[in-house]
Amino acid sequence: MRVSNWTTRVLQTPADNPLVVGVPQPGTREFVTLELDTDEGIQGVGVTFFGGPLTPALRSAVDSLCELTVGQDPMQVEAIAESLKTAAGSAGPEGVFTLALSAVDMALWDIKGKALGQSVCSLLGGCRDRVDTYASGALMRPYNLEYLAEAGPRLVEMGFRQMKTQMGAEPTAQREVARIRTLRDAIGPDIDLMCDINQLWDVNQALDIGRRVEEYHLFWLEDVVVRDDYQGLARVADALTTPICAGEYVYGIRPFRHMVEHRSVDIVMIDLLRVGGITQFRKVAGMAEAFNLPVVSHLIPEVQVHNIAAIPNGLTVEYMPWTLRLFEETPAIEDGQIVVPDKPGLGLAFNQETFQQYQIG
Fold first, then answer.
1. Apex CA 63: angle with CA 279 and CA 253, to 5°?
2. What is the CATH number of domain 3-118+352-358?
3. What is the pTM for the complete model shown?
4. Per-residue pLDDT tens for 120-148?
């Protein structure tokens, strides 16, 4: 079997989140989709995104990498990944190259699973058939306390036992803490509550506010300082009882070595696109396991469910439903867990109606 052809598209969809109710959600999101064909009629799907004016460049990068895979055996995923890295030279690992590589790698794993009649989760190890998932994007920092007090219980009613909010935009520490106190009072003590800072604090803020919210028993504090301040992250992780989570902003696998060697985090978060795809995800997950650290995912839950469910140190999947409308059918959510599709490959097919409605290139 050989890779024979490919098709890429650019989609521009509304920037909405079905977990958000009663709040305007303006704007759009742009995605680059990939359908990778073989000479035996098996097709794999992949997706990547960057946003803004660089989306055409990202599509061009995906096209260029696909051209290099034509004629290669799609079952040899690692070999193709290495050949693309070599071809890209000094263009990687950060930026457009890695984001493009991820879409190709995703599609190759989908082909391999379909060819062997196994799910990608099974190919990766198949540790379990479902894993915990948390509601994300519904409790964002622009939303006021009244909204948080209503939205938290609504997510619980929807079946989520875990959810994530944000801090990092309030003018005082007291007002930052009020957001966590409001949510904890609203959802009770038995729901796991995470909080993302998105790199908006310095170390001293993280220590100060982190100590103030310890009584509310956060499941983790995420990206409290800039992505590559490994020593600063380590200071915070050492000082707080709340687990520190980070990793979504780094590209490739090598920054994770620095992160775990410095004991910068208690929980490793891996962004599938920035790490370089499923092949590279596995390497970071193994690295984390060697340091006795759990792994969590960032975005694209439809694919990340395979990665997290396949490994023994997979903790939870971020349920950020940005990509839901791209697919005909997405993994089920049952009792606060996301279920691995019982189909070969990724178990995903692009929604042709979405293509017709939102394709811009």
1. 25
2. 3.30.390.10
3. 0.98
4. 999 999 999 999 999 999 999 999 999 99
